[in-house]
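Bug: token stream looks shifted between consecutive jobs. Job 1:
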Amino acid sequence: MNKPAHLRGKNVHFLPLGLGGSARNVTFDGSHFQVFPYKNILDRIEKTDRVIDYLKMDIEGFELEFLDNVLNDDVELLSNIKQIGMEVHPDRRASRRDRLWRHMHRLRELQFSLVSSEPNLLALNKFYYGEKEASCCYEVLWINNKFKTK
């Protein structure tokens, strides 16, 4: 997050902002930074009404805040996203896992299909959920069926 805003490609924006459920300052792993709702970031880059080909998020646990916010307050913004790639952290806490599952079901209701879900192989923190070994984080990919071509 200590990099200035820049374009990584013609249509690939990097902003030194965190994505979360509300606008505020946070501290994470000793770093201080700002997080903003998805709509605020789209407004900032003037892309609110544009189609987003691929939204990639690795936001270290803030994915639930993002999903809470966008699925409850700004759901219309999801209709312009073709693909969502994100790292999710299901956690040992049942309440967090349950929230994540509810959001996944809601994405399905909105015509997104989960096409890939794999453990993050770089993640060192594994835990057991019942008798099954689980990773602390997974890389998931959703596609918006609205954009599928036959």
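Job 2, same session, no restart:
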Amino acid sequence: MTVQYTNFRGDDYFLHVRQTKKGNPSYYFKKDDPDTTIDEIPEGYEIYEHPNGRVFLTRKSKQKIMDEELDIIKHSMENFSPIRDYKLDVRQKSIYLYTYENPVPYDENPVIVEALSDPKYKSYDAQLCFSLVDKKQGCFKWKESLIREKKTINGSFWKNRQTLRH
């Protein structure tokens, strides 16, 4: 039985392996190619799906962001934001909020709007990044990708000259 993963777009990916120059295994997913010799996910690895649908095999790491902290963001988005089409992506000590923007106005041809609403054609962009500053107190800094400032939850802020990595 091969390792197969279907992403949110409905694309099937199959786990493959190749040897590095040093002889170590290098794992990768390939779309629509079930011809593989791997029958299970290697110990210490997990499948990761990027918000735009790319699939990777990554090493398992300790969870630094608690489920309760993710739930706070989900609850806030559902109750206080007009944005309904979003994805949260947890990486190390950061939570990235990705949103989908329809590239055409809603008063455009309904057939075009409906076609672009199909998950196959959606593209998500990182809009906010919440970075864990103090794990004991659960204090986060947040950064908006458009104005490129870092702010803490309590309201103080300072300029950040780094750009948000996607």
